[in-house]
């Protein structure tokens, strides 16, 4: 009986996390699809804003996205004019990634949409409940950090 309750509990946590992710993705995509950028690409742009001159390996490691997907998304972002790729002066085998003006300009719009979505998702929660939610989610991430 206790094992069944634990299994159900685990399924419900996974289900809600998945549904929240999907709903957020749909909301963002519905409001910004004209930019031709999806969630992981936004994450890459934000990373590049916070780490000017980063390379693709840094993106792979920090965002936990495999190299082939990072390469493909960098190519797409470059073709759309959101980033540039230049050969590193220190290591000719690496590309240094930089945001363009167009890449810089899309980030505030993305953050505004995230804020709207998060406010809607946490409506009716007190500040303390929001902080507790963040702490619990962070603890879950810490617990599974090295789980393979």
Question: Which structural traits does this protein have?
Answer:
148 residues, mainly alpha, 6 helices, Arc Repressor Mutant, subunit A, globular
List the SSEs and their pairings.
Layout lengths: L1 H31 L6 H12 L5 H8 L3 H13 L3 E5 L7 E5 L1 H21 L5 H18 L4
Antiparallel strand pairs: 1-2
Helix pairs in contact: 1-5, 2-5, 3-4
Give the total of beta strands: 2
Would you identify the regions where 5 or more consecutive residues have pLDDT less than 50?
none
For this structure, the CATH topology is Arc Repressor Mutant, subunit A
Cα-atom radius of gyration: 19 Å
> So what's the CATH class?
Mainly Alpha
Provide the spatial order of strands within the biggest beta sheet.
1-2
CATH hierarchy: architecture: Orthogonal Bundle
Number of helices: 6
Largest sheet: 2 strands, antiparallel
Strand content: 5-15%
- DSSP helix fraction: 55-70%
Order of helices and strands: HHHHEEHH
The rough form would be described as: globular
What distance lies between the first and last C-alpha atoms, to the nearest angstrom?
A: 28 Å
Structure class: mainly alpha
State the CATH superfamily name: Winged helix-like DNA-binding domain superfamily/Winged helix DNA-binding domain
Mean pLDDT: 89
């Amino acid at each position: 009986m206790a094992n069944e309750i634990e299994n159900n509990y685990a399924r419900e946590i996974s289900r809600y996390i998945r549904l929240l992710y999907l709903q957020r993705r749909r909301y963002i995509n519905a409001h910004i699809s004209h930019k031709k950028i999806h969630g992981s690409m936004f994450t890459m742009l934000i990373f590049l804003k916070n780490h000017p001159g980063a390379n693709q390996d840094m993106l792979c490691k920090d965002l936990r996205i495999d190299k082939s997907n990072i390469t493909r998304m960098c190519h797409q972002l470059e073709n759309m004019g959101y980033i540039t790729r230049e050969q590193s002066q220190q290591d000719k085998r690496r590309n240094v990634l930089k945001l363009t003006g167009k890449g810089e300009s899309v980030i505030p719009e993305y953050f505004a949409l995230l804020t709207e979505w998060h406010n809607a998702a946490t409506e009716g929660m007190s500040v303390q409940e929001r902080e507790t939610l963040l702490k619990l989610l962070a603890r879950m991430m810490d617990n599974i950090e090295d789980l393979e």
